[in-house]
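Re: [ENG-882] Designed sequences occasionally contain unexpected residues at chain ends

Forwarding the minimal case from QA. C-alpha cells:
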C-alpha cells in the first residue's frame, strides 16, 4: 500500500500484525461501554472478541520525498533482548526482506526519524553482525529529538528508569552515536522542506510527531500518540507506558483537532489495516474515517522521486 501526499509517497513496511494487549492491559481506564457502540466495525479488524484482545500492527513508514528515502520509526528489530515484553523478545521477522520488496536497500536510506525511543520504535536502528550491534542503515543520518535522547540517556545520573525500555539505549541508540550517524533535532526542524519535527510530549518526554506537507496536503506520523482507533473516540484513554498521562491526553486531543481542521491523514504506528485514517469532527468528539484513505492510494509512483542518493 502506497499513499500519496502531494509529491510525497508513503509506504508501510510491516514487522508484525496480530493480536496484542487486552483492552484493560493497554488502557487502565478502559470500560466496556466505550467499545460496545463501535464493535460492529472494529471486529475483527481491530478487536478480537473471542480473545478479548486488540489486533494491532508494528510497522515503519517509508517516505519518499523528492530527494530522499526516509524511514519513520524502525519497529522492534531482530535478536533484541526484550524479556520484559515477551512478544518483542529475540524476534526473527522478515522486516528487511519487506523493505527490499519495496525496492529499497538499507544503503539507500538517507534519514531515519524516530518519533520516540521506546523499544518498538528503534529496533531496526541496528542489527547484529559478528556479535556486535551496528547501524542497519550505513549511509543514513539518524534524527533523534534532543529532548527524547536526553530522556533515555542511561548514562545520565538523573536517568528515570523504565523497565519497558531495558537494554534499548545500549543496543539500538549507542551504536548509532558511536558511528557518528546521530543528529539531534529540535522542535520545528525540517527535512527536504516537506517533513517537520513537531512536539508531541506525554507518552514520553520528548515524543514528536512528524508532519508531512506537500502541495497543500498534509499527514502526520503520530508514533504512539495513538495506539488503537478507540483513542480517536476516547482520547482520554491513556496507557500505562506513558511518562505523563495528562500531557499525553492533551497532545492526543490537539492532534485530533489538527487532523480534522486540516483534512490531514493520520499515520499511526500500530493501527491494523488500512493502517491510516482521516479524522472527522463529530459533535463534541471525533470519529475515524478509514474509507477515504483509498482515494490517496498511489499505485504508480512518479519517475525519479525517492531515488537513492
Amino acid at each position: 500500500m502506497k499513499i500519496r501526499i502531494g509529491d510525497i509517497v508513503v509506504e508501510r513496511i510491516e514487522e508484525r500484525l496480530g493480536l496484542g494487549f487486552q483492552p484493560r492491559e493497554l488502557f487502565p481506564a478502559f470500560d466496556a461501554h466505550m467499545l460496545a457502540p463501535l464493535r460492529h466495525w472494529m471486529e475483527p479488524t481491530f478487536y478480537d472478541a473471542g480473545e478479548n484482545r486488540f489486533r494491532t500492527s508494528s510497522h515503519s513508514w517509508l517516505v519518499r520525498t523528492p530527494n530522499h528515502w526516509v524511514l519513520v520509526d524502525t519497529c522492534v528489530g531482530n535478536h533484541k533482548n526484550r524479556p520484559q515484553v515477551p512478544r518483542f523478545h529475540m524476534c526473527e521477522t522478515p522486516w528487511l526482506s519487506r523493505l527490499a520488496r519495496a525496492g529499497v536497500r538499507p544503503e539507500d536510506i538517507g534519514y531515519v526519524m524516530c518519533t520516540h525511543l521506546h523499544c518498538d520504535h528503534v529496533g531496526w536502528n541496528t542489527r547484529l553482525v559478528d556479535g556486535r550491534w551496528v547501524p542497519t542503515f550505513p549511509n543514513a543520518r539518524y534524527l533523534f529529538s534532543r529532548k527524547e535522547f536526553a530522556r533515555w540517556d542511561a548514562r545520565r545520573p538523573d536517568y528515570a528508569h523504565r523497565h519497558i525500555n531495558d537494554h534499548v539505549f545500549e543496543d539500538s541508540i549507542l551504536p548509532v552515536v558511536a558511528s557518528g550517524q546521530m543528529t539531534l533535532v529540535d522542535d520545528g526542524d525540517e527535512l527536504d522542506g516537506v517533513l517537520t519535527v513537531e512536539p508531541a510530549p506525554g507518552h514520553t518526554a520528548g515524543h514528536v510527531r512528524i508532519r508531512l506537507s506537500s502541495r497543500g496536503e498534509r499527514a502526520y506520523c503520530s508514533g504512539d500518540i495513538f495506539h488503537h482507533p478507540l483513542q480517536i473516540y476516547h482520547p482520554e484513554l491513556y496507557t500505562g507506558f506513558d511518562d505523563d498521562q495528562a500531557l499525553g491526553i492533551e497532545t492526543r486531543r490537539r492532534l485530533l483537532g489538527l487532523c480534522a481542521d486540516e483534512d490531514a491523514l493520520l499515520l499511526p504506528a500500530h493501527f491494523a489495516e488500512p493502517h491510516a485514517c482521516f479524522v472527522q469532527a463529530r459533535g463534541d468528539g471525533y470519529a475515524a474515517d478509514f474509507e477515504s484513505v483509498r482515494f490517496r492510494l498511489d499505485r504508480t509512483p512518479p519517475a525519479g522521486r525517492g531515488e537513492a542518493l
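QA comment: On inspection the terminal residues look reasonable. The longest helix spans residues 245-262. Proposing we downgrade this to a documentation issue.
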